[in-house]
Design a protein that fits this description.
This protein is mainly alpha-helical. 82% of the residues lie in helices and 0% in strands. Helix 1 runs antiparallel to helix 4 and helix 3 packs antiparallel against helix 4.
């Protein structure tokens, strides 16, 4: 895990989530620019997965490796599912679904960091 990348992903995903919650409060729906913001966070998550996979292949073993890999996969899945729900539900609740997906990202990242740091790496 790369600390600065994880921190940046947490900050950006929280900012996007707050943006979406404010949009929801204003009764707005998801537009293309919002999907672009989700795609930016997803690209960062993909970079994090690639770095973690390289380090795993290099011999680093986090505590509960299967759980760690599950979180890696889950981190890539949660935002596309949230975006799909947001596009499918053309009301403020679609925006809320995207916000919840963005709020899930920091939780998953913090959990992965916790698992990775147990080994002291």
């Amino acid at each position: 895990m790369v600390g600065w990348l994880a921190g940046a992903l947490i900050a950006v995903s929280l900012a996007v989530a707050v943006w979406f919650l404010l949009m929801s409060r204003a009764d707005k729906t998801i537009q293309a620019v919002h999907l672009l913001a989700i795609a930016v966070v997803e690209a960062g998550l993909l970079a994090q997965v690639v770095v973690a996979a390289v380090r795993l292949a290099g011999g680093h073993e986090p505590a509960e490796q299967a759980t760690f890999i599950g979180y890696l996969i889950g981190s890539l899945v949660v935002l596309p599912v949230g975006a799909f729900l947001a596009v499918g539900e053309r009301s403020k609740w679609g925006t809320v679904a995207a916000a919840v997906a963005c709020l899930t990202v920091p939780v998953v990242i913090l959990r992965m960091q916790d698992l990775w740091s147990v080994t002291g790496v």
